[in-house]
Design goal:
49% helix; single chain; mainly alpha; 165 residues
């Protein structure tokens, strides 16, 4: 019985082909503005970028994510989906890539500002929750480490068992 291959735009795609498609559509300047990888800014050429991306896994994954979700505009999955590396992710059958998202430097800066504002709002909400006066606090470090109730076993009085177990 033949197993059905999961739908993935990255399956069988070489890094060079992916990078060529991205550079042809977006150009080096847009790629640097959106991905913030120095190989796209300082002396950008195909050989240097390929060498960098083949050696640096996190950078390659960032480019693959960009390819999947900005260039091919595949639907984003749940958190379990994002725990996998981009090449291991699959999509439901019948989902086909859409037209690439048109990006400009101004649009990228807008998206980055919106994202950082959302991040700051989440961070402030977490800080407020952490310093909220509604939750009870322990008075000292000893109180945090004590067990509640009298369920603690009594130490052994056996001289052959110094650990009390």
């Amino acid at each position: 019985m033949i197993e059905q291959q999961e739908n993935s735009p990255l399956h069988g795609l070489k890094l060079e082909t992916m990078l060529t498609e991205l550079v042809d559509f977006y150009d080096w300047e847009i790629l640097y503005a959106s991905l913030r990888l120095a190989c796209f800014k300082t002396n950008p050429n195909m050989l240097a970028c390929l060498k960098f991306l083949k050696n640096i896994e996190w950078a390659r994954e960032r480019v693959e994510n960009f390819y999947l979700y900005r260039f091919k505009r595949m639907p984003k999955g749940d958190t379990a989906h994002f725990e996998l590396k981009p090449r291991e992710r699959g999509f439901a059958n019948g989902i086909v890539p859409r037209k690439p998202q048109a990006l400009t430097i101004e649009l990228i800066e807008e998206m980055r500002a919106k994202s950082s504002a959302g991040y700051e709002a989440i961070k402030q909400n977490k800080d407020r929750a952490r310093f909220s006066k509604d939750k009870p606090r322990a008075q000292d470090s000893y109180a945090q480490n004590t067990r509640s109730g009298g369920n603690r076993s009594q130490p052994s009085q056996d001289p052959n068992n110094p650990w009390g177990k």
